[in-house]
Amino acid sequence: MFKALTKLLGNAVAAFGAITWFLLRILSQVPRALLRPGLVIHQIHNAGALSLVIIMTCGLFVGMVLGLQGYDMLERFGSESSLGSAAALALVKELGPVVAALLFAGRAGTALASEIGLMRATDQLVAMEIMAVDPFRHVVAPRFLGGVIALPLLTMIFIAIGIFGVQLVGVQQLGVDQGTFWSQMRGSVEVDDVMQGLIKGCVFGVACSLIAVYEGYVAEPTAEGVGRATTRTVVNSAVMTLILDYMITAVML
After folding, report:
1. b vs e for 114-126, b when ≥16 Cβ sit within 10 Å of the residue's Cβ?
2. What gap in Å lies between CA 175 and CA 219, rounded to an integer?
3. Residues 6 or more apart whose Cβ sits within 8 Å of residue 105
4. What does the pLDDT look like over 176-224, one tens digit per residue?
5. Angle at the Cα of 227 from the Cα atoms of 225 and 229, rounded to 5 degrees
6. Percent of the chain whose pLDDT exceeds 90
7. Predicted confidence (pLDDT) per residue in 109-141, tens digit
8. 81: helix, coil or strand?
9. Where are the domains of the chain?
C-alpha cells in the first residue's frame, strides 16, 4: 500500500510539473500568437460563438428552474418578494460561472482536445516541427487564447439569460411584483459580486482551455488515444472547475 501511494503521489507530482511546463511554453508564445489576430479570432468563434446556443438554452432553463424552486422555498418564509435578489446572487456568484464552465468543457473543450489529438494522430504536429514551424505558436496558443477569452463572455451571457428566465417565471407566471423584483435585485447585487463571477469565469477559462489543449497535445496517436484524451478533458475540467470554485469562494469570502 505504501508503494502504491508513493507511486500515485509521484505520478501526480509529475503530471502537475508537466502541465505547468506546458502552460509556461504556451505563455511564452502568446505575444507572438497575438501578432496574428486572425487565428485567435477564429478560435474565439469556434469556442465561443458556436457554444452560444447551448449556453443560452441552458441558461434560460436553469433560470426558470431557479425561479420555481426559489419561489417555493421563499414562500415558506413569506419572503417571495426577495426572489430577484436571491436568484441573481446565486447566478452571478455560483451557478453562472460553474455551469457555463461545465458546458464549455463539454462542447468547446472536447472539440479542442479532439482537434489537436487528431493532428497528433495524423502526424501534422510532427510535420510542422520538421518544417521548423512551432506548433505551440500556430496551433496550441491561439486555441488556448480563444478559450480563455470566450468563457468569461459566455459566463456573462449565461447569467443575463438566467436572470431573464427567473423574471419570466417569477414575474410573468408566479405573480411577483415586477418593480419589487428588479429593485430588490439592484439593491442586493454589488460590484464585488459581479467581479467574483467574472474572476471565476476567467480562472475557469484558463483551467478548462489548458486541460483541453494539453490532453489533445499529449494524446496517443491512435483513434483510441484521441477518444481517451477527449474523455479526460471533460472529467478533469469538471473536477478542476469545482475545486477551483471552492478555493476562489473561500478566498473571496
Report:
1. bbbbbbbbeeebe
2. 53
3. 208, 211, 212, 233, 234, 237, 238, 241
4. 888 888 888 888 888 888 999 999 999 999 999 999 999 999 988 888 8
5. 70
6. 52
7. 999 999 999 998 888 888 888 888 888 888 999
8. helix
9. 40-252
